[in-house]
């Protein structure tokens, strides 16, 4: 299997979390659950295999996607297909980084997966064909990097004070949320408007997603867990609040989640039909 994570230029590094390429992935399942992270993705399929999203309850197919698609900021988990001999390239934007490249308010993409040409036009399909034909991973990345730089509009960058605010949210416990929000240099209404435009979510909901992902990191690091301790350390009001929140974002009861013993290398992807 080939797996590459590319080095980003200084212009892109401020706005793009990562550009990943893999080839020859052979999962032992056909459906997987993705939990929310607060990011937007552009995904290039390079194996000519259509992908599906599924109803989270029935796992019946909902939509089919081919070639290139954009996955907006999701507030809850989604279910997608997984395939043998997968080859894909994925751009993951930073939490406030997608707007200068997509040129549309991020709230318009909340909880959506859309064909990329709806946002970028035919140019993204032409780019996909070039990536598909490129001889090696670095050549594929160079195409993506050049395209991103051509799409970048500095006038659409998030203001620095919003970036500072997001950094505080990523570092501070939930108990400090109100104090952080009070420190924002504009009104609370403008803060929420900025967040919806550049992140897609409200500050409070984004912070809830951050907290949930911190819990996943704790679970991955610890073999013996106390749910009470986790609930307390992550500022949940009580254990029942923690369980409700965990179930909302993952679709799993925490105790059941631990017993399923998911692989730890993909912290936000969980197989739903593993074939032992």
Structure description:
This protein has 276 residues and is α+β, with helices and mostly antiparallel strands. The chain folds into two domains: 2-155, Jelly Rolls (Sandwich), CATH 2.60.120; 160-269, Arc Repressor Mutant, subunit A, CATH 1.10.10. Helices cover 41% and strands 20% of the residues. It is built from twelve helices and eleven strands. It has helices at residues 10-13, 99-102, 117-120, 123-133, 137-151, 160-171, 177-182, 188-198, 203-221, 227-233, 239-250, 254-260, and strands spanning 2-5, 16-25, 31-34, 41-45, 51-54, 61-65, 68-71, 78-81, 86-93, 113-115, 269-271. The longest helix has 19 residues, at 203-221. It starts with a strand and ends in a 5-residue tail after the last strand. The model has no long low-confidence stretch (mean pLDDT 92).
Along the chain, the helix and strand elements come as: EHEEEEEEEEHEHHHHHHHHHHE
Number of beta strands: 11
Please, what is the CATH homologous superfamily of the largest domain? Jelly Rolls
- Residues in helices, as a percent range: 40-55%
> Could you say how many structural domains there are in total?
2
What structural class results from the helix and strand content? alpha+beta
Q: Using the coordinates above, name the CATH class of the largest domain.
A: Mainly Beta
Strand proportion, as a percent range, falls in 15-25%
Radius of gyration, in angstroms, nearest whole number: 19 Å
Largest sheet: spatial strand order: 1-2-9-4-7-10
CATH fold label of the largest domain: Jelly Rolls
- Taking pLDDT < 50 over at least 5 consecutive residues as the criterion, the unreliable ranges are none
Approximate shape = globular
Distance between the termini: 21 Å
Please count the helical segments. Answer: 12
Question: Average pLDDT value?
Answer: 92
User: In this structure, how is the largest beta sheet organized?
Assistant: 6 strands, antiparallel
Architecture of the largest domain in CATH?
A: Sandwich
């Amino acid at each position: 299997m080939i797996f590459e994570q590319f080095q980003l230029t200084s212009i892109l590094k401020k706005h793009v979390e990562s550009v990943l390429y893999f080839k020859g992935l052979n999962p032992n399942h056909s459906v997987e659950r993705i939990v929310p992270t607060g990011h937007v993705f552009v995904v290039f399929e390079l194996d000519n295999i259509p992908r599906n999203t599924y109803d989270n309850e029935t796992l019946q197919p909902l939509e089919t996607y081919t070639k290139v698609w954009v996955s907006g900021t999701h507030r809850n988990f989604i279910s997608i297909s997984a395939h043998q001999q997968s080859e894909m390239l994925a751009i993951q934007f930073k939490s406030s980084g997608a707007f200068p490249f997509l040129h549309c308010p991020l709230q318009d993409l909340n909880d959506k997966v859309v064909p990329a040409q709806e946002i970028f036009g035919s140019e993204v399909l032409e780019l996909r064909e070039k990536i598909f034909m490129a001889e090696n991973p670095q050549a594929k990345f160079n195409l993506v990097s050049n395209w991103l730089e051509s799409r970048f509009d500095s006038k659409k960058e998030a203001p620095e004070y919003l970036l500072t605010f997001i950094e505080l949210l990523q570092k501070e416990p939930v108990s400090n949320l109100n104090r952080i929000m009070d420190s924002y240099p504009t009104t609370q209404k403008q803060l929420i408007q900025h967040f919806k435009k550049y992140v897609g979510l409200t500050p409070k909901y984004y912070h809830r997603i951050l907290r949930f992902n911190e819990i996943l990191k704790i679970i991955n690091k610890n073999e013996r867990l106390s749910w009470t301790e986790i609930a307390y350390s992550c500022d949940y009001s009580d254990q029942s609040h923690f369980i409700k929140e965990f179930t909302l974002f993952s679709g799993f009861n925490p105790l059941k989640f631990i017993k399923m013993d998911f692989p730890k290398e993909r912290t936000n992807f969980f197989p739903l039909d593993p074939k032992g």
